[in-house]
TrEMBL record:
InterPro entries: AAA_GajA/Old/RecF-like, Bact_Antivir_Def_Nuclease, P-loop_NTPase. This is AAA family ATPase. It holds the Pfam family AAA_15. PANTHER family: ATP/GTP PHOSPHATASE, ATP_GTP PHOSPHATASE. Signal peptide: none annotated. Residues 1-336 form the Endonuclease GajA/Old nuclease/RecF-like AAA domain.
Length: 742
């Protein structure tokens, strides 16, 4: 391990942060302007000053304080063991480490009254930035600073600023990753070697060098320059290529991909048998890459990572226990996040950056998962949620279809900033921000039957204890004190439970409508005073009940009639004209014959067929008669508006207030036989409308587009629209209000 932790105080967007337990792979995510790049800037500044180069100091976060500070804690356990090894006693560099870094680390521990663990030795280096722009290190020993810079070199790649056609920065990387004892090699030996190989007993090479020295003076090579020149001599050349081709003829995306890939491969490969542990920060590696190429980048990194990793005790050929570099990746790419989480397991962490009171807030996410089922379904859609502003978890495609409706989002603009995710129990458990430990607000929408079960025999509602458990919620607040919001929540729950236990439910004769309590009002209070605090919300029945209710009944029937007139047309078959002719010449005399004729001639076919004038007029009359029959049958069999709305809800896969549906096995046990028969007959009579009533038929979009257009047509302005919308879709409006998070 290289870095153990980073502390930053009062600099840029950071009031005070502490990133601990740094892993091999550290993925940094968050929205724009949350301070991700500031981490790169501050670590870069720290190392720029470590190399004693000039740089403009970062601004203080709060000018009322006189300074800011960057502290990096380094793990020196391994180098300590190497230095204290008997065989290294005569190594000059190791002696220098022992007399500086290890000595200071020892006194540092004493000064803080810490006991040194046999397995964990650290050294913390701090840089103070004063408000007069001066800087001050926590140690005055320049040798210690040099050693830290040598043992833990820092690199960064700002992908958007990389020169994709000039990779010379890779030579800087190469020069810092290996420790060679260059002091044993003298210039005289090198000159003599080339004289012997080039001049054939003459001194042509040394004469050439001497003439250059007579003409000009050069500064001495530093250690890294020497290493780099020795390395280059051993290679075939110094110009980097991709598959033997020049960089200039490659695409930007290919060059970016290969540059980062080669950089990371060198970083890992060249440090496996050394005591140097580099740190690298890559800002937005996904820039210029196809999403699948971003995934390939991480997969290739994982392959080289694992190719050197020991998997068992003892000696393994070409496998090492050497600590890996610390790699930081700041990304907006769900593909990169997904690949890091799935590939690197416990060797990665995800840091979520957000803003809190105008300062950067950093949370370490729970990004390791024991449940392989979740890892199997963890893909781009799931990873995308970690970048969300607000997550709205729903049960299925119907809810997703509704809340993603384009006309709805245009009227309720805050929906555009919300990610809607149709979840499963497994996915919800791990993506839920409460588990992942992100600062992302969220809410989970459930149907009422996840909380309630109706006992038809005893006429009681009982509470379930599965996905939603009021008992578990109450248990969280049992030690709350009087006057606190939690105590009030506990009181609300107690009052609700008492009322529920003491109430016998009364229903109408069909056992579908609750008559002795305001069911919608009760659900609203449960949501507002109990569940909302826990990031849950329930519908009074199902999402279909939010759309089909007494207030929206007129609009819904109007839409159904428009569907018949607009989208129920002659079947798209070759002999349709003949079939219509036959039907026209044998006119229907009663309702049964009318329905039979409609069944034989009409289907969901938006494209209108080319018909004779007589047949076209016949179809127009046929559809008009069907509309009248549909309206008459509905009003005759189910005369009450409340019952009508529930019946239509049942036909469109919704539920009653007693939480039963036609597709439930117990439906015929709860409702009277005659009512179940009437529902079945109504569905059978109007089978030509069956294309609408399936859960995934698209009826939600059709009805809602129709509704919004109708409300807009009758509204003078946007306020009038929202007032009318709230009146017609009151339950849906409450959900939309709950989704406002700004």
């Amino acid at each position: 391990m290289g870095i153990k932790s980073i502390k930053i105080k009062n600099l840029l967007s950071y009031d005070e942060i502490h990133i601990s337990d740094i892993k091999d792979i550290n993925c940094i995510i968050g929205r724009n302007n949350t301070g991700k790049s500031n981490l790169l800037k501050l670590i870069r500044f720290f190392y720029t000053k470590l190399e004693r180069r000039d740089a403009l100091p970062p601004k203080l976060n709060n000018n009322y304080s006189s300074y800011g500070e960057i502290s990096i804690e380094y793990d020196i356990t391994r180098i300590s063991k190497i230095v204290r090894g008997h065989k290294n006693n005569n190594n000059k560099f190791f002696k220098q480490i022992a007399s500086t870094l290890l000595k200071q680390a020892y006194y540092e521990r004493l000064s803080f009254f810490l006991t040194e663990s046999k397995n964990d030795k650290t050294f913390t280096l701090s840089l103070k930035i004063n408000n007069d722009e001066s800087v001050q290190w926590s140690t005055k020993d320049t040798k210690t600073l040099n050693i830290i810079n040598h043992l833990f070199p820092y690199f960064d790649i700002e992908t958007r600023h990389v020169d994709l056609y000039d990779w010379d920065k890779l030579w800087v990387l190469i020069s810092k990753l290996k420790s060679f004892n260059t002091e044993k090699i003298s210039n005289e030996e090198i000159v003599a070697f080339f004289d012997s190989k080039i001049g054939e007993n003459s001194k042509s090479y040394s004469d050439y060098i001497n003439k250059i020295k007579e003409i000009t003076k050069t500064s001495k090579y530093g250690y890294k320059e020497k290493v780099l020149n020795y390395v280059k001599v051993g290679l075939d050349g110094q110009t980097f290529q991709i598959d033997g081709k020049k960089l200039e003829i490659q695409s930007d995306g290919t060059n970016s991909f290969k540059y980062i890939e080669i950089f990371l491969s060198l970083l890992i490969s060249l440090t496996r048998r050394d005591y140097i542990t580099p740190i690298v920060f890559i800002d937005e590696p996904e820039i210029g890459l196809h999403p699948k190429k971003s995934e390939q980048l991480i997969e290739n990194l994982y392959e080289i990572y694992m190719s050197f990793k020991k998997s068992k005790e003892g000696i393994e050929q070409n496998k090492y226990a050497t600590p890996y570099p610390n790699i930081f990746m700041s990304t907006h790419s769900p593909n990169i996040l997904k690949s890091v989480v799935k590939e690197f397991g416990i060797n990665q962490q995800v840091l979520h950056f957000s803003m809190l009171n105008e300062n950067t807030n950093i949370r370490k996410m729970n990004s390791t998962y024991d449940d392989h089922r979740f890892l199997n379904i963890f893909n781009d859609n799931e990873a995308r949620l970690f970048f969300s502003e607000f997550i709205f978890f729903v049960e299925g495609v119907t809810e997703q279809e509704l809340f993603s409706n384009k006309l709805l989002t245009n009227k309720f603009q805050h929906l555009k900033n919300i990610d809607i995710y149709a979840t499963s129990d497994v996915a919800l458990k791990y993506i839920n921000p409460s588990y992942s430990n992100t600062a992302i607000p969220y809410i989970v929408l459930y149907d009422a039957d996840h909380l309630f079960s109706f006992d038809n025999q005893n006429k009681k509602f009982t509470l379930k204890t599965g996905k939603l458990s009021i008992a578990q919620v109450r248990n969280k607040y049992k030690y709350s004190y009087i006057g606190s919001s939690n105590f009030q929540a506990k009181r609300n729950i107690d009052m609700f439970l008492k009322g529920l236990n003491n109430t016998t439910i009364q229903t109408d004769s069909n056992n579908i409508n609750i008559t002795n309590i305001d069911w919608h009002g009760l659900i609203n209070r449960i949501n507002k005073f109990i569940l909302s605090k826990e990031n849950y919300w329930i519908t009074s029945t199902t999402i279909e009940g939010c759309l089909i209710n007494e207030k929206s009944l007129i609009l819904f029937k109007k839409w159904m009639l428009s569907e018949v007139l607009g989208n129920l047309n002659p079947k798209n078959i070759g002999n349709i004209d003949e079939i219509i002719n036959s039907a026209r010449l044998s006119p229907y005399l009663n309702d049964t014959q009318l329905l039979q004729t409609c069944e034989s001639v009409l289907s969901n076919n938006p494209a209108i067929q080319t018909l004779s004038d007589q047949n076209r007029l016949f179809i127009r009359k046929l559809k008009s008669d069907l509309v009248k029959l549909l309206s008459r049958r509905l009003n005759t069999v189910f005369p009450d508006d409340k019952i009508q709305s529930i019946v239509l809800r049942l036909l469109f896969c919704g539920k009653t207030e007693t939480l039963t549906a036609t597709f439930n096995k117990n439906f015929k046990k709860i409702v009277p036989v005659h009512f179940a028969t009437e529902i079945s007959n109504f569905r059978n009579d109007f089978t030509m409308l069956g294309y609408l009533t399936e859960k995934t038929s698209g009826w939600v979009t059709k009805f809602f587009d129709f509704s919004i257009n109708e409300i807009e047509k009758n509204s003078a302005d946007i306020k009038g629209f929202h007032d009318e919308f709230r009146l017609i879709f009151s339950e849906l409006s409450s959900i939309l209000d709950r989704l406002r998070f700004r």
